[in-house]
Amino acid sequence: MSNAFLYRMPSGIPGDVSRKSHSTIEAHLAVGNFGAFGVFGKLTVNGFVPLSAADTAVYGLIVRSYPTQSALNGLGAAVPQSGIMHDVLRRGYMTVRCNAGTAKKAGSVFVRVAAGTDLKPIGGIEAIADAANTIELKNAMFMHDADAQGNVEISFNI
């Protein structure tokens, strides 16, 4: 096994805040199944919840747990756990996974709000519109091209 980067270093890990000094992060009770870190959700009286088809706005991105003991979060799961406090990025920069389309520097960011799958989760980030299944975020953009795994940094609410 080689640890050499032949073309480009990986962009990061989805859900990691990439520029902490330029970020606003809040703690909220996560309610429901988010499916992954680095996806968008909304704030309700019950807590931070996944998006639904009727949503036209988002509140923030769910931040990956840190420190971790492995590739899984500190609770032994690879996805956010419902019913516990999680950090939510309200503004700043985060590494996310681009689930559809080709992320390009200064490109538009779309968020899936309907017809979610394992590869395209609800709240997930995409670089191409998908009819009524996605909404465009006017206050977000890709900061560079995605790496080979689809990981890319976005700015949100800056």
Comma- or semicolon-separated keywords:
158 residues, mainly beta, 9-stranded antiparallel β-sheet
Structural features, described:
The chain is mainly beta. Helices cover 0% and strands 34% of the residues. β8 (134-142) and β9 (151-156) form a beta hairpin. It is globular and about 50 Å long. This is Bacteriophage protein. It holds the Pfam family XM1_gp53_minor_capsid.
- Kindly, what is the distance between the CA atoms of the first and last residues, rounded to a whole number of angstroms? 40 Å
- Low-confidence segments, given as residue ranges, are 69-77
**How many structural domains in the coordinates?**
1
Largest sheet, if any? 9 strands, antiparallel
Report helical residue fraction: under 10%
Measured on Cα atoms, how large is the radius of gyration? 15 Å
* Run of helices and strands: EEEEEEEEE
| Envelope shape | globular
Structural category is: mainly beta
How many separate helices? 0
Give the strand content: 25-35%
Number of strands: 9
Mean pLDDT: 88
Protein name: Bacteriophage protein
Organism: Acinetobacter sichuanensis
Task: Please render the helix and strand layout as text.
Elements: E1 24-29, E2 40-44, E3 47-50, E4 60-62, E5 85-97, E6 108-112, E7 125-126, E8 134-142, E9 151-156
Pfam family, one: XM1_gp53_minor_capsid
Protein name: Bacteriophage protein
InterPro entries: Gp53-like (IPR056914)
